[in-house]
Amino acid sequence: MPAIWVYSEDIIITQQLLALGRELADKMQAQLCAFTLNGEGATSLIASGADKVFSLQGNSLWPESYAQSLADFAAQERPEAIFIGATQRGKDLAAKVAALIKAGLVTEAFAIRLVDGSIETDRIMYGGLAICTDTLVAPAMVTVPARTYEALAPDPTRTGEIVTLDVTTDDRVSVSNVCPIVREGADISIADKLVCVGRGLAKQEDMKLVEDLAAALGAEIGCTRGIAEDYHWLPNDRYIGLSGQKIKPSLYISLGISGQVQHVSGIRDSKIIVAIDTNENAPIFEAADYGIVGDLYEISPLLTEAIKKAVK
Fold first, then answer.
1. What is the model's pTM?
2. Share of the chain above pLDDT 90, in %
């Protein structure tokens, strides 16, 4: 029976991949299999759409150490597609497995579909200036960013098979110490609403305008790369763009941001984009659903007051 495999070391991303896998598996009449290094979460993956869960048991905590074992298993079982979460470790694992089984690999796909019996993907190229469409032959290997798909509502009545596999891991490289990233405030990559500020803000003291608007909306604050790396007004984990955070909020409001392609590539998945800038020809307006040509120092306080009145 044909099969589709999904894996991420982050169980939330695995559940999102299962939503994609479930849709394709039903169309292909294939079995949907999830892989995990944590056997305790296997039941939740069945509830999220998996037909079978393979719990890999090895002597390593690091996903990339399982590349050879996963490749050997793929060569034996010959799945139609393998979808891996595009985390740093996931991308490393996917590249190693693809090389070992001599399969093509599409990275950071934002759309995946079945066309004439083949897997077809879309991914962004040249910093958002172009979209590349690839058609893959089995085994189709694809890395998928977090939140590209919405996880299915868990169904505790679903049944499936849980299989424990004892595997050999690659222990040539060991990790002796892990230093977690300390975030200042919330993770903006998962925020539902965002107010983002750019170089249109004249001085750091004026951040109060941005903070007031964000507070009225119940939103988090993001920024462009210049605000974080050049001015140091906000932490680096707050800047949005090609080399920064990629966001997918229901509402994104930009203040004084021209909208260069590097920034727009990080906000393109926002459901509603609102842009405020003095330059009516600013590129940000091409990406925006709603635009206000005006001075953020005038517009932002008015918008804040209007929102406060609306939510009373």
1. 0.82
2. 78
